[in-house]
Automatic annotation (TrEMBL):
This is Alpha-amylase. Residues 1-21 form the signal peptide. GO terms for biological process: carbohydrate metabolic process. Keywords: Signal. It comes from Pedobacter kyonggii. It holds the Pfam family Alpha-amylase. GO terms for molecular function: hydrolase activity, hydrolyzing O-glycosyl compounds. Belongs to the glycosyl hydrolase 13 family. Residues 183-526 form the Glycosyl hydrolase family 13 catalytic domain. The keyword Cytoplasm does not apply.
Length: 627
């Protein structure tokens, strides 16, 4: 996780949030609240009735003494709309009438005479500090903040919201084994950083052959220029990327082109702008009365404020968030950030943190069961990295788990062989029964870029030089990609990795904006790498042998190979990761003619393949030609 940077953000953002949430003139009069049961049909947030002319607004806030509803419908008065408290003291609600169904209304809750907060369940917020940087092209006709009327973030509600008419209602998701996921940060993918401009690049992604896009967090997070792992509102898409209907259209158009859309979901923690944090906060951290958050984080990798996933309130909230995105946006899967953090077992280092945790397993079985009850074919992907025995239990439940091969694969691409064995990419080494449960990758948003390290730290021998040599570095990327896509199971690539993106993750700060390099695509040497990725992806998707359970391999040393067998066909991927020529001696299992998917063929007089390979040279041989 991005701990140091986010901790700095946390201090700043919460100080700002507290100032914004305070009232303008000190303590204001508190309303007189009545006790009354929730009306039929009421739920967290807003429910419109009477054809949109009335709304029942509800807030879960146990233990609070007084709450009033304030907004444009009562000129932000803190006393005129005193909310009613349910007999158990948990819920507060009010029915506001005489609304125009076509009007957007800004509103907040005024709590205990000293706090103004937005609605945790709202689908849109207005931010007095950050909205001014959102262009009309990205978010047309954005409602103005009610300056001078209130402070802090406000919620927005509207009965007759713009609705999206879905066109592709029979999308069939790719099989887990055949998933090729493209992880994408909207902010750094196009200069316009919105869904429309991202959609304009869909042909590029279709040409690459990917069949799933994984969007880094798109629900409201603090600020605009973020990776999104500092979430504050969980039902509202972040306006910096576009409108609700623009996001729905993006997903719909992806479905129309055969591409699933996976959403990065951050439910390990929340940040200081969250009204759920602010409602139970002592100025430095959550208080023990919080229904959702631990007073202190239970694990050392936490940023923000740590959700307690053994709390019934947190479980309900989390299920509500999951169900909302599944049903309102037709999302195909969630990648859960820092899923190992869903624990109440305290730890101070990763050796303790990753140990088998029966409580954490129970939490994930529960959430997975809930998701599958709504949609049995939904992708559930965890960034877990826990003890292998724990991950096996989760995989047996049908959950998919991230598998980071970055370090070993990058050692291989740089030509440093001692730690270049990336056999961890094979599911059997994790004890998994199926390859479909292991999402392998050489790059994600969270690792240094492979080609940056190739160019900066690559090995050399004589005239064969990786460091500082773009052409050779790109060829090394091609070599590693041939192996990555030949390992059975779903795969993921990080945006522009297919073009050899070589700007450090730490450029402009780890989570800061990165140069958007579409000019790479017009560079012939980089286009060769893109075309190679497209070929490997096509081979994986079109030939079931690349998901074969019958595999042998040797990924140590300079000469590496993978051998896959299915029926009468065998595929052998062989390559030289050294910086000097090396001789390959591999038992292919059969003599005769072997076709190279890269072109040409060889004829073996015996089962043994013996050939000297130049540094960086690789082949994809098969007994029967691949499609």
């Amino acid at each position: 996780m991005k701990k140091i940077i986010y901790l700095l953000l946390l201090v700043v953002s919460f100080n700002i949030a507290c100032k914004k949430a305070s009232t303008d003139g000190g303590i204001e009069p508190t309303p007189t609240n009545q006790t009354a049961a929730l009306p039929a049909g009421a739920k967290d947030g807003v429910v419109f009735i009477n054809n949109g002319t009335s709304a029942i607004v509800t807030l879960y806030a146990p233990g609070k003494k007084s709450i009033s509803l304030i907004g444009e419908f009562n000129d932000w008065s803190t006393t005129t709309l005193a909310m009613k408290n349910t007999p158990d003291g948990n819920y507060w609600w009010f029915q506001v009438d005489n609304l125009n169904p076509n009007t957007e209304y800004a509103y907040q809750f005024y709590v205990d005479g000293n706090l103004k907060v937005a609605d945790p369940y709202c689908e849109k917020i207005l931010d007095p500090d950050n909205d001014k940087y959102i262009t009309a092209a990205t978010y047309p006709n954005l409602k103005a903040y009610p300056t001078g009327k209130t402070t802090g973030i406000v919620s927005v509600m509207q009965a007759n919201q713009p609705t999206y008419s879905w066109k592709n209602t029979s999308f069939s998701r790719p099989a887990k084994d055949n998933l090729v996921i493209y992880e994408l940060l909207v902010r750094d993918f196009t200069t316009d950083h919105n869904y429309a401009s991202t959609l304009a690049k869909l042909d590029y992604l279709i040409g690459l052959g990917i069949n799933a896009i994984e969007l880094m967090p798109v629900n409201e997070f603090e600020g605009n220029l973020s990776w999104g792992y500092n979430p504050s509102f969980y039902f509202a898409p972040d306006k910096y990327y576009g409108t609700k209907t623009a996001l729905q259209n993006f997903i719909d158009e992806c479905h129309g082109r055969g591409i699933a859309v996976i959403m990065d979901m951050v439910l390990n923690h929340s940040f200081g702008q969250s009204p759920m944090v602010q409602l139970y906060f002592d100025g430095s951290k959550p208080i023990s009365a919080s229904p959702w958050f631990n007073v202190d984080a239970k694990h050392p990798f936490n940023v923000g404020y740590d959700f307690n996933h053994e709390s019934l309130a947190t479980k309900k909230f989390s299920r509500d968030v999951m169900k909302f995105w599944m049903q309102q946006y037709k999302i195909d899967g969630f990648r859960f950030d820092l899923s190992k953090g869903f624990t109440q077992k305290s730890s101070t280092n990763d050796d303790q943190f990753r140990l088998y945790d029966a409580g954490r397993i129970a939490i994930w079985k529960d959430y997975n069961g809930f998701i599958k009850s709504l949609d049995p074919n939904f992708y559930v992907i965890l960034e877990h990295f826990a003890e292998e025995s724990e991950e096996k239990v989760l995989a047996d439940e049908g959950i998919m788990l991230w598998n980071n091969m970055n370090y070993n694969m990058n050692e291989a691409t740089m030509g440093w062989l001692d730690n270049s064995n990336f056999q961890w990419g094979f599911y059997a080494n994790h004890g998994f029964a199926k390859s479909e449960n292991l999402v392998g990758y050489g790059e994600s948003h969270d690792e240094e870029r492979l080609n940056f390290k190739n160019i900066t730290y690559g090995n050399a021998s004589g005239s064969y030089v990786i460091k500082g040599n773009l052409a050779t570095s790109l060829k090394r990327e091609e070599l590693s990609a041939a192996f990555l896509f030949s390992i059975p199971g779903p795969k993921m690539i990080w945006q522009f990795g297919e073009l050899g993106y070589d700007i450090s993750i730490d450029f402009n700060g780890r989570t800061g904006e990165k140069p958007i390099k579409w000019d790479y695509y017009t560079d012939p040497s980089r286009k060769v790498l893109y075309d190679a990725y497209a070929k490997f992806i096509r081979l994986k998707k079109n030939n079931s042998i690349f998901n074969s359970a019958n595999s042998t391999y040797n990924l140590a040393g300079g000469i590496k190979y993978i051998k896959l067998t299915e029926g009468t066909n065998t595929v052998v991927v062989v390559g030289n990761f050294d910086v000097v020529s090396q001789t390959a001696n591999i038992d292919f299992g059969a003599s005769g003619n072997w076709v190279d998917a890269l072109g040409g063929s060889i004829n073996l007089s015996s089962n043994s393949y013996n050939s000297t390979l130049a540094p960086g040279e690789y082949h994809i041989f098969s007994k029967t030609a691949l499609k």
